[in-house]
Specification:
The chain is 42% helix and 16% strand. The chain has twelve helices and 13 strands. Its EC number is 5.1.3.2.
């Protein structure tokens, strides 16, 4: 008997697929909706290879209300949603802002409307640390706590803030209506997870990040430089007020991030807190140059890079203060930056074509052997 059934939007994407894996490993049934705009159905095969269970999948765009209604109708046991589906590139968001508002904000409203129609009352929203903007503008806000004033510096961040606001208003309104009618209201809950820079891959080497087209994040780009798919890494600015001039970010292993989403879902179901925001991060800041050095060490050679101008909307320091999640969710990161680099290199070295190739036989044999030992 499953603990519950969860709809995961964007569940074939990088963080969505790893969260699906964590849910399945912890007794949940999972239904995924994904447009496959920036992901692959092959992620479903990799999830099944690792945990022996396969999520139910529908190719539905987050802006398609009829499509979402159909999924909820077919699965009346869905009681919670973990919402990842979004366009997510900071640079691109400044170039095509209307599309970002249409998909991210419009899609989230569509999802909430469909959820309300089908009486699905828990939502865990995959937000972002970009909602804080440049936290160095306020004294004493690094590492960043949840009470840091919101102030995004790019369109992507603006969409995340809007969605947080929409979810908060929706959950609070549903609670008020139910209370006024003398009905139970505690079932309406939302978690706003502001996470920092996800990285790494599954330690088996058969599941990782496989962006369609050009990746926008540092570690996947370094992976492509290491495999020779790209000539060099572009470093956006070396004139920040950091120890080496490059921007500081809090890197979190994707397995830790997935377990944070699971912890937030369990908290909503057990504690019924209304709407809560938590930071998911390690609390450790690393500069771009430190990351290049750490990954180069794992690869075994220096990776070429070129410093270019800063990107519009980038900020100096996004390091988390994860104390609230540590305390309330009983969650903290377990894996190191070195783990993330080693796992990422195992993934890209063995899967240069990502999900557009079969997983290497040697890695599958190792995975089978490790599962046999566990059983």
């Amino acid at each position: 008997m499953a603990v519950g059934t969860v709809l995961v939007t964007g569940g074939t994407g990088y963080i969505g697929s790893f969260t699906t894996l964590a849910l399945l490993d912890n007794g949940y049934d999972v239904v995924i909706v994904d447009s496959l705009l920036n992901s692959s159905k092959a992620a479903l095969d990799r999830i099944e290879l690792i945990c022996g269970k396969r999520p139910t999948f529908y190719q539905v765009d987050i802006t398609d209300e009829a499509g979402l209604d159909d999924v909820f109708s077919k699965h009346p046991d869905i009681d919670s949603v973990i919402h990842f589906a979004a366009l997510k590139a900071v640079g691109e968001s400044g170039e095509i802002p209307l599309e970002y508002y249409r998909v991210n904000v419009g899609g989230s409203i569509t999802l909430l409307r469909s959820m309300a129609k089908h009486n699905v009352s828990n939502i865990v929203f995959s937000s972002s640390a970009t909602v804080y903007g440049d936290a160095t503008r306020i004294p004493g806000m690094i590492p960043i706590p949840e009470n840091c004033p919101i102030g995004p510096t790019n369109t992507y961040g603006h969409t995340k803030v809007m969605i947080e606001t929409v979810i908060t208003d929706h959950i609070e309104a549903e609670r008020r209506k139910a209370k006024k009618a003398g009905k139970p209201f505690e079932q309406w809950n939302g978690a706003l997870l502001r996470y920092f820079n996800p990285c790494g891959a599954h330690p088996s080497g058969i599941m990782g990040e496989d962006p369609q087209g050009v990746p926008y994040n540092l570690l996947p780009l370094l992976g492509k430089v290491a495999t020779g798919e790209r000539d060099k890494l572009l470093v956006f600015g070396d004139d920040y007020a950091s120890k080496d001039g490059t921007a500081i970010r809090d890197y979190i292993h994707v397995l830790d991030l997935a377990s944070g989403h699971l912890a937030a879902l369990n908290y909503l179901r057990e504690k019924k807190p209304g709407v809560k925001a938590w930071n998911l991060g390690s609390g450790r800041g690393s500069t771009v140059f430190e990351m290049i050095k750490a990954f180069s060490k794992v690869v075994g050679r220096d990776l070429p890079y070129q410093v270019v101008d800063r990107r519009l909307g980038d900020v100096l320091d996004l390091t988390a203060n994860p104390a609230l999640a540590n305390e309330e969710l009983q969650w903290k990161t377990k894996l190191t930056l070195e783990d993330a680099c080693a796992d990422l290199w195992r993934w890209v070295e063995n899967n240069p074509k990502g999900y557009r190739q079969d997983p290497p036989a040697e890695l599958l044999e190792k995975l089978k052997a490790s599962k046999a030992v566990k059983n």
